[in-house]
Amino acid sequence: MSETRQTTDDAQATTDSELAGGASPGTDQPLEVTSGETRERTREEWVEHEFEGEAKLSVSDLDVYYGDDHALKSVSMEIPENSVTALIGPSGCGKSTFLRCLNRMNDRIKAASIDGSVRLEGEEIYQDGVNLVELRKRVGMVFQSPNPFPKSIADNISYGPRKHGDLDTGLLANLLGRSDDDAVDELVERSLRQAALWDEVNDRLDDNALGLSGGQQQRLCIARALATDPEVLLMDEPASALDPIATSKIEDLVHDLAEEYTVVIVTHNMQQAARISDQTAVFLTGGELVEYGDTDQVFEDPQSQRVEDYISGKFG
Amino acid sequence: MASATDTALVSEDTTETEAVAAGAVGLAAVLFALSLASVFELVTITDPVAGVPMVALLGGLLVVLGFAVVTFGVGSRLGYVATDPRPTAGLLASGTFGLIWFVVGGLVASQTLGLGTAGWVVASLVTGGAAFAVSAAPREDIGSTLPAGALAVFAGVVFLTGVIGPSWVWDLGWEQQASFNAEFTIPVLTAFCSLLVGWAAAKAYGGFGARGRHIGAYVLVYLNAISIIALLFLLVAFTVLKGLPGLFKGLALGAGAGPEVTLVGVTFSLPVSWPFVMNGVALLNDVNGVLPAIVGTIWLVVGAVLFAVPLGIGAAVFITEYADRGRFTQVVEIATNGLWSTPSIVFGLFGLAFLVPRLGNRKSLLAGMLTLGFMLLPLVVITSRESMLAVPDEYRDASAALGVTKWQTVRSIVLPAALPGIVTGIILGVGRIAGETAPILLTMSGSVAPPGSQTVDVLGGFQLQSAPPFVTNPELMQATSALPYQLYSLITAGVGESSNISAIDEFRWATALILLVVVLGFYAVGIATRYYFRSKLQHD
Ligand SMILES: Nc1ncnc2c1ncn2[C@@H]1O[C@H](COP(=O)(O)OP(=O)(O)OP(=O)(O)O)[C@@H](O)[C@H]1O
Ligand SMILES: [Mg+2]
């Protein structure tokens, strides 16, 4: 992964030379054209989003390559504080890739190289000397596929805080009478309640988490991420395996979280995006951010024809 | 088995023909067991069984089975038995039959008829080709029963007529004067034929076709598995039977029967006296025992494990989790694999040349522990690495995304998930080192028949002192014995060397049995540990 940043001019040139949608001459591989997609040029102003308050995360000219595969193309966007930002777009357009850039999880993928800048509260996270552990404590993540640890449900929840040293439950702590067992119980209950899982599992907190159903595992992973109390929560399709009731609980949760947290959520469900998010970013095939703005505006009056087609279900 | 019932989900009640075929399968299994029994000479081939000599019984059963199978095949071809055969038995079956009959034809021509090279080659080709054709060309019901059944009938007739009778010997005429005698040949041939016929009968039972092939393969695999397990069982049973008399010689139970021991300042007599396990070898002993060797083996394994396991896991953590995958890890991998396949005598020699001079210049328990530890190390590295690689990356990602450091992730997620695999590796390794003789011979062995006073007392041997190294343990520096070494030396040294052991053969077998028990004991501990770690990872 490269730490250097492209100059704005360079990036500008790349964007301008690209013909969105069609087999563009400026890119090294042809873009997929789904039937119904119109050829159109992406305009700078489509991705400009005016908002009040501070930007929690500002991304500029972010390029991601997997080997030769250009997965994200010069993405720039500002994510406001204490709000919900939805990322939508067809499968394979780079939503997860974008999300992983925000807490540098892409560093863990050997093939990935990242170019560009992401600032968390004005501080560049792609520079030398960034403490990744600290960064990820502040920017938490829920993965696309549930990945609970092969431990008990309670241990899954308390894992992060315990390892951070916020909670001490070890043998030594017990001997010294400094054990935080009560605090752990409290944390487990609170996190599970937030993730709408408490009622289903409160009688088997010591059972292995792998014995939960897929949807329960998904909610456990949300609870686990909440337990570490991050400032920013990145959620990659957190409700993909959930029934309508659990989904609405998660949506309520996301809504509540936006009071204190900054939530970035990927979803394939347009209604969900429209319901819960303050602003929406639409990625289209080829790893391009095509439109970004107020959710209401994006859904009701998209500026891009392709986005309109996508939202109305003509392709994608 | 009618085609009609094959397509139905639920087949009808067993038909008579099915029962006949099943009977044939059962008979083949019995025949297989009988022939195995005579291979291991539980029954000799001249022994009468149910009034007839074994050889006649085997031959007769073969003939009956062969005819049954052929009749079934022909009946199926003529439409008397409803089956569902494929157009041909398949290339694999035909090729195998061709090859078998090629060998049979050649042997008969050259050995029985005494034809020359040209003669037996022609005969082989003719029989082999015929078998191949019979198997490949007609429908599956003929193709898989006729060659098998004919072979069984042929073998049966050969045994019955005495062409290969009890006194038959086939001298190969090699320099080593190797020869096959009837005691070995007849049961082995019978076992082979019964497998073939059993397979054919099983296919017939399944009505040929896909189901028949499935059942045929199942019977083959099943018989094979059973015979392997039976073989292992036989081996253990043999050792146990031979070892038991020596093991329990002089055993006495009851209050105060045993020797006095002092535990936590209290002296009392053990309620058992078990001389073989509690004594060493001494002139005045009523019953000599192998206590020093038992204790030596246990400490040896414990020491080697304590030495190798932390080091090995540490190395594996480094090359799996920290080092970048590339040249370096490849080299380490090749080196560890190579070290694991290095013969133990080489490790022994290394211990003798490198460790012994540095550890007081004499053979010692410590030198033995370290040598075996070095032997165990590569396996621990290999299996730990394998099982850590098998831990899904999702766990590492999840942990990293929670803001947990790499080391904490390794310690709390990766290692616990890998532990069952690591323990499996240690179990395998302990099985190997516990039975090692050569390294012990070179680095740690004491007398051939150690007296009880030579039993090491490692725990009691620790002494504190005020000067460095502060803790010493002379017991570790003592030469001692271990079970495999003791067994080896008892066998090679002969009775003269250890003349104060009476009934030396009994003593050896009992030693072997004790070794088996000690190793199995380590296994049990290992498996219990693995079970414990695994149950923590899995939901039930
Ligand atoms: N680890 C990886 N190695 C190589 N290529 C990858 C990797 N992860 C993603 N890609 C590629 O990057 C592109 C974007 O993938 P990404 O996972 O970000 O899509 P997505 O928008 O999240 O899709 P979905 O909605 O299906 O989850 C795809 O073409 C994919 O093949
Ligand atoms: Mg995705």
From TrEMBL, chain A:
Transmembrane segments: none annotated. Residues 1-46 are annotated as: Disordered. Residues 57-311 form the ABC transporter domain. Residues 37-46 have a biased composition (Basic and acidic residues). GO terms for molecular function: ATP binding; ATP hydrolysis activity; phosphate transmembrane transporter activity. CDD domains: ABC_PstB_phosphate_transporter. Pfam families: ABC_tran. PANTHER family: ABC TRANSPORTER I FAMILY MEMBER 17. NCBIfam families: 3a0107s01c2. This is Phosphate ABC transporter ATP-binding protein.
UniProtKB/TrEMBL annotation, chain B:
InterPro entries: MetI-like, MetI-like_sf, Phosphate_PstA. It is a multi-pass membrane protein. GO terms for molecular function: phosphate transmembrane transporter activity. It is found in: Cell membrane. GO terms for cellular component: plasma membrane. Keywords: Cell membrane, Membrane, Transmembrane, Transmembrane helix, Transport. Residues 294-526 form the ABC transmembrane type-1 domain. Its main location: membrane. GO terms for biological process: phosphate ion transmembrane transport. The chain crosses the membrane at residues 20-40, 52-76, 88-109, 115-134, 146-164, 184-205, 217-241, 261-284, 296-319, 339-357, 364-382, 413-434, 509-533. It comes from the Archaea. Gene3D superfamilies: MetI-like. It holds the Pfam family BPD_transp_1. SUPFAM superfamilies: MetI-like. Belongs to the binding-protein-dependent transport system permease family. CysTW subfamily. PANTHER family: PHOSPHATE TRANSPORT SYSTEM PERMEASE PROTEIN PSTA-RELATED. This is Phosphate transport system permease protein PstA.
